[in-house]
Amino acid sequence: MQMKHVARAAVGAVLVAAMALAGGCGASNSNSGATDSNGKIEILAAENEYGDVAQSIGGSHVSVTSIISDPNADPHDFEAKPSDAKQIANAKIVIANGVGYDDWLDKMLKSHSSSDRTVISAQQVLGLPDNTKNPHLWYKPETMPAVASTLAATLTRLDPSHAKDYASNLQSFDTSVQKYWTALDTFKDKYPNVSVAATEPVANYLLDNAKVTIKTPWSLQADIMNDQDPSAQDSATQMQLFNDKQVTAFVYNQQVVSDLTKKYLAAAKANGIPIVGAYETMPTKMHYVDWMLAELNALTQAAANKTSTETLE
User: Cα–Cα distance between 184 and 209 in angstroms, integer?
Assistant: First the structure.
């Protein structure tokens, strides 16, 4: 896959840059200005999937806090608390999704500006414009390796004495993400004619990479994502997908639920269409790659056995 090779090359390039920084600083350099009272670098992640990656790269040398971490809550209803502001003030590294998904964090960063803080945005790491239609970037298999490599370089700059640890952790993480790429390739080869309906574009990047046809109109997905009522025509098209059994599965966002999405869910079930539960926040007791593989496995079960996997919790 061409995209896979590009992602791996990017990881390698940033890793080389990180090691160069470490070599220039020297292993004897102190990182005392970048650490908390326990000698750890404080990292704040807007969403727990990014926090999980940060922990994978930083290991025992970092202290990671994720602000949005409840997979049973609507992340769009999140409101920052005073304690979140304190955590931002203390963080040496902040990791965000970008593309407007966590704009509440942008406002807080402006209110608590610091020249001694590095902000890593997945949007900026990937070079995506502000008008990117689908903000759920963590479902893109190239996103997290790029974020991880940028983080490894940042940690190496702040803490050159542990550069080898960050490089090793980055390599291990990159290897684990290859399981996601492999599973996508396997799915494409084994199930070449899968189509789905969806409530919104939460898992669309995964679906696109699995070569799954998304039959729900984009306008309906975008309206639900933006908390707007879809047009009557789009809603009728969605219902027809279920009633005429035109799709293999229904990808249902378990965190953003309304009377309308429940109506679609009931229609899918009534017509024997298996449900694939999708999440915006990483489920508890999972790591990032495990989560992506679980979502893809749920899609596989729908395609292979017409089995629903409504929840991952």
Answer: 7
Q: Is 99 helix (H, G, I), strand (E, B) or coil?
A: coil
Say whether pLDDT at 299 is over 70.
yes
Identify the CA nearest to 76 among candidates 101, 96, 48, 53: 101
**Residues sharing a CB contact under 8 Å with residue 79, sequence separation 6 or more, in sequence order:** 104
Q: How far apart are CA 249 and CA 98, in angstroms?
A: 29
Distance between CA 189 and CA 260 in Å, rounded?
34
Adjacency order of strands within the sheet including 275-278: 213-214, 195-198, 249-253, 275-278
Question: 39-48 burial, b if ≥16 CB within 10 A, otherwise e?
Answer: ebbbbbbbbb
85: helix, strand or coil: helix
Looking at residue 124, the DSSP 8-state letter turns out to be: H
d(CA 153, CA 64): 17
How far is C-alpha 182 from the chain's CA centre? 18
What is the widest separation between alpha-carbon atoms in the chain? 68
Closest of 141, 138, 94 to residue 118, by C-alpha: 94
Contact 99, 123 (CB under 8 A): yes
Q: Which of 275, 264, 209 is nearest to 237 (CA)?
A: 264
Asked if 198 contacts 216 with a C-beta cutoff of 8 angstroms, the reply is yes
Tens-digit pLDDT profile for residues 128-179: 999 999 999 999 999 999 999 999 999 999 999 999 999 999 999 999 999 9
Q: Under a CB-based contact definition with an 8 Å cutoff, are residues 97 and 123 in contact?
A: yes
CB distance 20 to 79 below 8 Å: no
- How many helices (H) and strands (E) would you count in the chain? 12, 8
User: Which range has the worst mean pLDDT, 67-76, 96-105, 274-283?
Assistant: 67-76
Structure tokens at 257: 């639920």
